[in-house]
Amino acid sequence: MKIDIKQIDFAKGNGLVPAVVQDVDTGKVLMLGYMNEEALEKTIRDDKVTFFSRSKHRLWRKGERSGNFLQLVDIRADCDHDTLLVTARPRGPVCHTGADTCWAETNRHINFLGHLERTIHSRKGADPQESYTAHLFARGINKVAQKVGEEAVELIIEAKDDDEQLFLNEAADLMYHYLVLLAAKGYHLEDVVRVLEQRHK
Asked: Domain check: are 119 and 83 in the same one?
């Protein structure tokens, strides 16, 4: 997270700067809030987005009543250091009306893998009797890794045949179990993408 709080120009807005919140997985703009220096510090410290409420005149953590928190991913300042771009993962609808965004838009997952990955991570600690993903997590990293190996072999076998649907189904199975393995290790797909981007330079 590359942000120097001391460089943020809070004085220009009488102690506040606008903070645009964007879904890191879909790129959708979710809402606009305002932060003072204390709200920004708390957001960075707690990894949950906190604003300064202009109506309540106090710090306000998004989701403090509804539980629909914004999990912080990154914060960046614009070129004038007087506006913030906050990338986050929403834990439910963002708007108080129940809409996905404060513009009443549907936060469609352009990148479905991002949506699937969020669902997989949410299954950690869930009842293994209610969810296959939770069942895999409960059996431990060795079992998850074994499943990835099994699915990879099945994909290789189907690649040698001419059944397109079976091949795609096996590819989907491998992708799913690969995402489960990443989650079991505490990683996200973006961590792998970052490595690929570094190799591409």
From this structure: no
Query: Do the beta carbons of residue 89 and residue 95 sit within 8 Å?
Result: no
* 3-state secondary structure (DSSP) of residue 184: helix
> For 64-102, how does the pLDDT look when each residue is reduced to its tens digit (9 = 90+)?
999 999 999 999 999 999 999 999 999 889 999 999 999
Residues spanned by the domain of 21 = 5-90
Distance, CA of 179 to CA of 194 (rounded, Å): 15
Q: Please indicate, yes or no, if residue 103 is contained in any of the structural domains.
A: no
Task: Give the number of other CB atoms < 10 A from CB of residue 129.
Answer: 8
Q: Measure Cα distances from 85 to 66, 79, 167, 185 in Å.
A: 23, 11, 41, 29
- For the residues 25-53, what does the mean pLDDT come to? 95
Same domain, 140 and 69: no
